[in-house]
Amino acid sequence: LETDFGLRVSYDWNWHLLIDLPSSYFHHVHGLCGNFNLKPDDDIPDAGDNITAIVAWAKSWKSANSEVDDLICWDYCDGACPVCDEDKKELYGGNHYCGIIKKSFQGPYRACHDIVKPHDFYRNCLSDLCLSDGARSILCQVLETYAATCRKHGAMVHDWRTPSRCPLPCPENSHYEPCGNACPATCSNWDSPATCDQPCVETCACNTGHVLSGGQCVPVSHCGCTHNGRYYRLGEEFWGDDTCRSRCRCDMELGMVVCKDSGCKPGEVCAVVKGVRRCVANSRSICMATGDPHYTTFDGRRYDFMGTCVYLLAGLCSTDPTLIPFAVTVENNHRGSHLVSFTKVVTMEVYNMTFSLSQEHPQKVKVNGVLLDLPFTHNHQLQVSLRGVHGFITTDAGITVTFDWYSYARVIIPNTYAGAVCGLCGNANGDLHNDFVTHDGHHADNETHLGDSWKVSNVPGCSSGCSEGCQVCSDAQKHAYRGDKHCGLLGKKRGPFAACHNVIDPTPYLDDCLFDACLYEGHQDTVCQAIGAYVAACQSQGAAVRPWRTAAFCTLNCPPKSHYQLCARTCEHTCAGVSAPPPCSEHCFEGCQCSEGLLFDGSRCVPPGTCGC
């Protein structure tokens, strides 16, 4: 990043940040980088080598909103700081590790020692390798930083990658250059190397006849288009104005931008999402499967279906080319009674990939059959994350699938899919009276007929449910569970959910709870799951929920080094979120929160220093 007043900022998207300022800013800046008065001793006033004073000074420059924007930020290790013992210092100080920085005889940095002193880089290298148990990737980053600093100051750097085993793999149509042009030719600026005033850099340079196009080396003939100062690849489509009235495309044959009049669909608004202007839906529809299992369609029709095979819950059934194809299936199973079933596995197929959340593997996801820890991301198109006790699969198409790994599943679609979906969740056309439609387009005779028509596969021993002789509880039997010690808590006017009653009607959830509680004779786990479904629905809408679990009622047991929180932010407090914050909901959900100072690594709560990669 360069400005016309001389500021230059560079960042390697990982950990190496450089800021260059012109002399006009002499003694006119402040912050962690000091005051720019050529007196390094006063950069940290009155601190000296006192660690506590240095931390206090650094903390004084903390952004006002940093703890809001990054919930896992901290200023210090609070008494549990890792220590590098003498044995590790000796090991990592050798020439196979950090010692290569100071090596003077035939060392790769020998020509730089008098220009950029190696001491600070060597000391930082020892510290970083101690904290990472000698991770080779960390060593390579430290050595690369020193090499880049040396080159920036005009010093020659010899081959350091071979002796330190830090190869730089280069992508297709490029090759490694230890001292390449810092301003490579791009499709939007072929002449940039000729006008470059920066020192050489270690880089992957495009092969002859190729230039950079969006970070990839492509033949010159494959270059895209430039429109209003922004580069677009061949075939890429975009909105050419601020109101989404002009749809443009970088034409592959003409090699230029071609635009035509267009606009957003009904129910969409023009907005910038993640830096890209697009049409987004202004409302959404939700389908739910809760308990044993009670289905609520996108349009609000409620019914019970007890089949235990694999069924299409919701999927695209339209040929509209503007809609992303998807399919969500559910597999149900019996638990303690052959008269009822519960959701066991929720699977989503989208972007030619398959994602499964299963009761068998809580807090994990299967991606194309491979079991992985959370969070998981794919090409900025899809994310799978943990929010409270729920797994969330979110897509850039606006489709979200959630499952609590027990029995509560939801599919959320934008209104752009209205009338374009089908399955157990109905068609989302706003009319609940035509939701009972079978796969072949006919009106279903009953719930079993409907469910069977959307069966996509069998599993050993699966059945169609209780087509006849389904167990039914009388009102008198249900009445026993209307008290506060069971389902009655849901509708209590001054109870823990009172603030949500005007947001989400508790009546359907109360009915489902009474149904489940009666069939399972008041088994507390069944009641707790039914109430938990209402809590999740309330929290997803941002409605306030007061504490409702107690030591004797619906206790949520948490793993070691974690505790229950009614409003947990589990999505942010992860090891993965340290370097690449996951896209999390603005709302909190009840769940197990790692203890203060610990992060979730996908299976347990650990200190930040022991997080993986």
TrEMBL record:
What Gene Ontology cellular-component terms does the record carry?
A: extracellular matrix; extracellular space
Presence of keyword Glycoprotein: yes
Q: Where is the signal peptide?
A: none
- InterPro entries (UniProt xref): Mucin_vWF_Thrombospondin_sf, Ser_inhib-like_sf, TIL_dom, TILa_dom, VWF/SSPO/ZAN-like_Cys-rich_dom, VWF_type-D
Record-linked PROSITE patterns: VWFD
Q: What keywords is this UniProt entry annotated with? A: Disulfide bond, Glycoprotein
Q: Give every VWFD domain span.
A: 1-74, 285-463
Q: Which residues form a coiled coil?
A: none
What name appears for this protein in its UniProt entry?
FCGBP protein
Species for this entry = Cnemophilus loriae
Taxonomic lineage of this organism? Eukaryota, Metazoa, Chordata, Craniata, Vertebrata
